[in-house]
Amino acid sequence: TLEATRPVPRPGVMAIDAYVPGKSGAPGAAKVYKLSSNETPLGASPKAIEAYRKGAEKLELYPEGTSAELREAIANLYGLDPDRILCGSGSDELLSLLTNAYIGPGDEGLFTEHGFLVYKIAILAAGGTPVVAKEKNLTTDVDAILAAVTPKTKIVYLANPNNPTGTYIPFDEVKRLHAGLPKHVLLILDAAYAEYVRRNDYESGLELVASNENVVMTRTFSKIYGLAALRIGWMVGPAHLIDAVNRIRGPFNVNAAAIAAGAAAIADQAFVQKAIEHNETWLPWLTAEIEKLGLTVTPSVGNFLLLHFPRDAGKTAAEADAFLVSKGLVLRRVGAYGLPDALRLTVGTEEANRHFVATLAEFMKT
Ligand code: PMP
């Protein structure tokens, strides 16, 4: 056998396209409105910020290793068993850990056509094979997922609402998906945008987790809690799954300041309520105003929406993006998701939202 002249990654590693975050700057613009990463325009709870500062006082000490304070706070809010909760450095880390625990070479991970890009990266990184199920009208199609299940399927990833589409399937459909899966297939309910969903059946996902051995729900502090910079996620699942993932996680995977800030954020539900109300006001407003300009918007239940520039309209998403950036409006191009003619917009402050609509109107007239 030939000896390589330098270390060579495992087969498949170099075939992975690295995750590319949205752009954050708008060179030359007087003021930047970052509407590209589904971050909240309201910032974090002042109580969380204060807890963060206190939590960062003793930098020489390792954090408590199981995120106990944070798990307790989450468990109290939702009436869960803290032993069934595991925290991570963003839900991204939890998605990777779950994938590493259940998928290896020869196994398949299944997600939808415009599913969150991290699923594919995590599956490939674990040596597994990504399998994609078609969507209908940019919405999860349960029948297509069930039809794509094979004897090799180990995990089904379902973001509900999905990013970048913002679309949602009702809980009955989630239940139908679960009922159609073999018991050894893990169903990951990625609920990154859970708090924004104004549907009274939403928390039912937690019941599905509580009453089954093959369902886990991942959540994040990056969105409505406004703590994206700290990278905090959590998941709740059956005891056997938490035990398995706990064995492969890194020690001290959530930092001390993050644990403190997360717990304080959970305790400030009044702040969350304000963020919900802000979104309830501005998501429909943005949808309606964009449609008035003759563009199509995919109905969203998250804190973001997709707007489409039809090929025959003479205006492209790329041109719109360039024009918007020149006015300080940073949106997300979603070509990597197979949506080259769309832009994803995060709901911003009132000022940002009004500036966006006025600027889009200006662009449509050019
Ligand atoms: N899932 C979905 C659907 C997302 O949109 C995101 C954030 N882009 C994540 C998971 C990961 O979030 P985080 O790692 O910040 O918790």
UniProtKB/TrEMBL annotation:
Coiled coil (residue ranges): none
EC annotation from Swiss-Prot or TrEMBL: 2.6.1.9
Highest taxon of the lineage: Bacteria
UniProt cross-references to InterPro entries, sorted A to Z: Aminotransferase_I/II_large, HisP_aminotrans, HistidinolP_aminotransfase, PyrdxlP-dep_Trfase, PyrdxlP-dep_Trfase_major, PyrdxlP-dep_Trfase_small
Pathway the protein acts in: Amino-acid biosynthesis; L-histidine biosynthesis; L-histidine from 5-phospho-alpha-D-ribose 1-diphosphate: step 7/9
Aminotransferase class I/classII large domain ranges (all copies): 31-359
GO molecular function, one term: histidinol-phosphate transaminase activity
Positions of post-translational N6-(pyridoxal phosphate)lysine modification: K223
Cofactor(s) listed in the protein's UniProt record: pyridoxal 5'-phosphate
Top EC class, one word: transferase
GO biological process: L-histidine biosynthetic process
CDD domains linked: AAT_like
Protein family per UniProt: Belongs to the class-II pyridoxal-phosphate-dependent aminotransferase family. Histidinol-phosphate aminotransferase subfamily.
Name of the molecule in the record: Histidinol-phosphate aminotransferase
Gene (UniProt): hisC
